[in-house]
Amino acid sequence: MNATAAPVAPAWSPDLEERYAPLVEQLERLIPCMEVPLHLPWIDAINTLKKERGALIMAHNYQSPEIFYGVADITGDSLALAQQAATCDSDIVVMCGVHFMAESVKVLAPDKTVLIPDMEAGCSLAASITAEDVLALRAKHPGIPVVSYVNTSAAVKAVSDSCCTSANAVQVTEAVAREFGVDKVIFLPDRYLGSWVAQQTDVELVLWQGACEVHEKFTAMEARHARERFKAKIVAHPECPPEVLAEADFVGSTSAMGRWLDKEKPERVAMITECSMADNLRNDFPQVEFIKPCNLCPYMKKITLPKIHAVLSDLSNEVVVPEEDIAGARKALDRMLAVGRRDRV
Ligand code: 13P
Ligand code: SF4
């Protein structure tokens, strides 16, 4: 079956609910319970096919619970997925995330077959800048190194000096400035992540005007309202505008959010980030009440169980990174991986 053909659901069998009893119970707490029987045949078919193929499924923290808990072998934030890509031993990796994440797996493990369930799963940040834009910035700021957020294409990474994620952006920026003996760095493409980094370092940043179309929609009023009316703690992703971050009790990567909840154990929390983050965390923190200002990432939500099944069936939607970009992008990712995870929790 082609990844774009209308999916034919695998047959429902009455023993599925028994065989998947713990998962059924888990999903019934996280998504509308009526949806669970629709997902189960796909989950079973994907898990069978995954074994037959010897494939590994990676899922970002923003994937829906039926993917995150139903079929993924490895879950995490962008940094964790990149770290695991570099070391996992399966020959086939299915990336349930967005295209730049799949490209990073391919760059770090070029011999693997990397599949993405929907080629249109992009990212507004990655789309905001091209390699030509980076070269023009370099020409305008000679001698100034470039730090690119991982939410960029492999071509942009290939002309950057280092990548970073929200789990290590400050430390990577400082490490690059030290290594190049400069006090200024070009930081791209997210202007909000960039201004959050700038507040925490003496390194001067030249910013690009990219933004995440999901996080830029949040407002300070929403965060204040959640705190004042519902007495909620505010947890926000650094891709949010500065006035939203100013209202937050914690700002960090999608994985750091979970660690912060574990440490602080708030009674009630408003997650100022993509919708599924709260759904997935509710599994680990049943005692926490989640308030969910719901902004969906339309790209993350392109990934569905039928599409995962389709690419595993016919090994379609293979992610290819042009040969000429691999070495440069690898160097930039390796610099980031050398710094590792540096969240404050
Ligand atoms: P994390 O690196 O925190 O997982 O974030 C990735 C992302 O795309 C957030 O919008
Ligand atoms: Fe890109 Fe924003 Fe979606 Fe993350 S949430 S993948 S930054 S568009």
Nutshell version of this structure?
With 345 residues, this protein is α/β, with parallel strands linked by helices. The protein is 45% helix and 14% strand.
Describe the structure.
There is one protein chain. This protein is of the alpha/beta class. The protein folds into 3 domains: 16-121 and 300-314, NadA-like (Rossmann fold, 3-Layer(aba) Sandwich); 126-211, NadA-like (Rossmann fold, 3-Layer(aba) Sandwich); 215-291, NadA-like (Rossmann fold), CATH 3.40.50.10800. It has 16 helices and 12 strands. The radius of gyration is 20 Å and the shape is globular. The chain starts with 15 loop residues before the first helix and ends in a 6-residue tail after the last helix. The model has no long low-confidence stretch (mean pLDDT 94). Residues 98, 123-125, 151, 212-215, 239, 274, 297, 299-300 line the site of iron/sulfur cluster.
Task: Quote the average pLDDT.
Answer: 94
| Helix/strand order, N-terminal first | HHHEHEHEHEHEHEHEHEHEHEHEHEHH
> Radius of gyration from the CA trace?
20 Å
Residue share in β-strands: 5-15%
The main sheet orders its strands as 2-1-3-4
Please name the fourth-level CATH homologous superfamily of the largest domain: NadA-like
**CATH fold category name of the largest domain:** Rossmann fold
Let me know the number of strands: 12
**Helix content, binned percent:** 40-55%
User: Count the helices. How many?
Assistant: 16
The domain count comes to 3
CATH-derived architecture of the largest domain:
3-Layer(aba) Sandwich
> Bound compounds, please?
1,3-dihydroxyacetonephosphate, iron/sulfur cluster
